[in-house]
């Protein structure tokens, strides 16, 4: 028992040394191919995409995917960007041909009324869309990574737009990744504890580069 405790403490020390704090669980593994998207239409998803590029991980991106778009798999059914809709394909098509089912979806949590307005969405419509997407992911065993990297600027009072996006996604995710300044009140810690979801805190968003390399090993 003492040996197990020592190993556990040592692992936590090593994680802390890397600038991360993992709450009581091992880092789960996810599989490719991966789709990135926004939960709330803030620009934070752009940061997530940059992080994946820095990690050398190919991805597809769609700002407002539906279950039908998810079902089309890699390549997003050859959909093209247009006003109010953005689609990008960066998956390595030599490894995953078009139509390959997604195995992971990364959702960047953060509300932007401007972003939602540009996509023709209200807060209520975005919540409903996210529910359908998450329902589809869970029904098809697609791993959900919820990322909150906007810090305090993407938090708010109970019932605010940002908090509603958190409530829509975080409790139903398979892995939570957050910056420490966005979790000062412990809300993500509470969600992770109640729902038994692995939670990783980072000091800065760029620390997620090495984390995702481990997640997608």
Count of structural domains: 1
CATH architecture name: 3-Layer(aba) Sandwich
Largest sheet: 8 strands, mixed
For the record, the CATH class is Alpha Beta
Spans of at least 5 consecutive residues whose pLDDT stays below 50 are 1-19
Number of strands: 8
The helix/strand class is alpha/beta
Mean pLDDT figure: 88
Strand order of the largest sheet: 1-8-7-6-5-2-3-4
Content of β-strand: 15-25%
C-alpha-based Rg, rounded: 17 Å
What do we call the CATH topology? Rossmann fold
* Secondary structure: helix percent: 25-40%
Series of H and E elements: HEEHEHEEHHEHEHEH
Distance between the termini: 29 Å
Give the helix tally: 8
Estimate the global geometry from the Cα principal axes: globular
Organism: Candidatus Saccharicenans subterraneus
InterPro entries: DUF6305 (IPR046272)
Keywords: Membrane, Transmembrane, Transmembrane helix
Protein name: DUF6305 domain-containing protein
């Amino acid at each position: 028992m003492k040996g197990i405790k020592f190993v556990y403490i040592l692992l936590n020390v090593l994680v802390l040394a890397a600038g991360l704090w993992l709450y009581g669980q091992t880092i789960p593994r996810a599989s490719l191919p991966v789709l990135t998207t926004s939960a709330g239409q803030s620009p934070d998803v752009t940061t997530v995409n940059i992080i994946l590029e820095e990690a050398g991980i190919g991805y597809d991106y769609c700002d407002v995917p539906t279950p039908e778009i998810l079902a089309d798999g890699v390549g997003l059914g050859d959909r093209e960007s247009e006003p109010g809709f953005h689609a990008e394909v960066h998956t390595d098509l030599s490894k995953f041909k078009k139509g390959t089912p997604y195995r992971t979806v990364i959702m960047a949590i953060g509300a932007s009324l401007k972003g939602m307005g540009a996509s023709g969405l209200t807060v209520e419509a975005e919540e409903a869309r996210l529910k359908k997407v998450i329902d589809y992911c869970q029904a098809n065993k697609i791993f959900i990574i919820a990322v909150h990297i906007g810090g305090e600027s993407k938090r708010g009072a109970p019932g605010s737009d940002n908090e509603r996006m958190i409530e829509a996604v975080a409790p139903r995710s398979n892995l939570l990744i957050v910056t420490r300044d966005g979790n000062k009140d412990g809300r993500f810690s509470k969600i992770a504890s109640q729902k038994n979801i692995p939670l990783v805190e980072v000091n800065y968003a760029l620390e997620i580069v090495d984390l995702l390399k481990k997640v997608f090993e």
